[in-house]
Amino acid sequence: MAQIIYPKIDLVEEIEKMKKLRSAIILSHNYQIPEVQDLSDFVGDSLELALETEKSDNKLIIFCGVHFMAETLSILAPQKKILLPDLDAGCSLASSINVEQLQEWKRKHPNSIVISYINTSAAVKAESDICCTSTNAVKIVESIPANKEILFLPDLFLGAYVEKITSRSMRIWPGECHVHVQLTAQKINELRESQPNAEFLIHPECGCVSNTMYNLAENNISAKKTKILSTGGMIKYAKSSTAKDFIVATETGILYPLRKENPTKTFYPAQKDAVCEYMKMINVDKVYKSLNELIYEVKVPKKIAEKARKPILKMLEIV
Ligand code: SF4
User: Fold this and answer.
1) Ligand 1 centroid to residue 2 C-alpha, Å
2) CA-CA distance, 236 to 190, in Å (whole number)?
3) Which residue is closest in CA terms to ligand 1's atom 8?
4) What is the pTM of this model?
5) φ, ψ dihedrals at 72, nearest 5°
6) Residue pLDDT, tens place only, 44-63
7) What's the fold here for domain 94-176?
């Protein structure tokens, strides 16, 4: 029997057509693969993506990132349909605590204030008093009255870093991101010694660099020529700096926009295999399928969403 040859379709073109047809927008986290970043309408860190979702007029959002981030968008923009092209795109840090474990921890420390890192499930956020990100964690802890005990979750390195900077002791959940295991102080110091003129840039988006921030606070890594920056800040800084070389400590996905925006400069990853496989699960095929079949919707139940919204908004009031 003659073999049927189907015409090859240009997926990127089809995605563009379908996006218009469905009045959708594609938002991507900057740790996504380059092909996905290139077809997106907006690429940013989790806070920038949440703000972009609220701002956009589109009712359909194809979100290329991980599950807890899609939940945060659903909490902040409940009137919009949020599709995550791969439901297995999770987060090892967010999975390190579930709502039952948090409820049990709260029962043991009933008068404590719960500070949850943004890398947590909607159900965990709903049981929290206030959220924080790596960038604002110090400010959030400082906003809590000194006589209150704090339960800080789930990133043990971010917690240790905040304790060191604020000189305040907290109860810290022993969770961690599997990616930061690659970013050891020793490896970073060796690379910095081999590139003495390079500036050292840290992007504290995820749990993947919280141990680097901790090592910096502990002086295990030199603070010389070091900048802690947001994604946008990092791109702008790299453009305006007179330095030609940069060592970048974060998940390696950020190297793509940095190199794209600064083609004459050299960016070295602090660790080449600091790769979050969850962030690489989405590809162009899955984005096409998601748009075509309207899968997979991430919708936080109304009751949980209303409770989870409060600690997020409280954080936004402070920072
Ligand atoms: S890099 Fe770590 S903290 Fe960030 S999404 Fe991946 S597993 Fe989670």
Assistant:
1) 48
2) 27
3) 91
4) 0.91
5) -60, -40
6) 888 889 889 989 999 999 99
7) Rossmann fold (3.40.50)
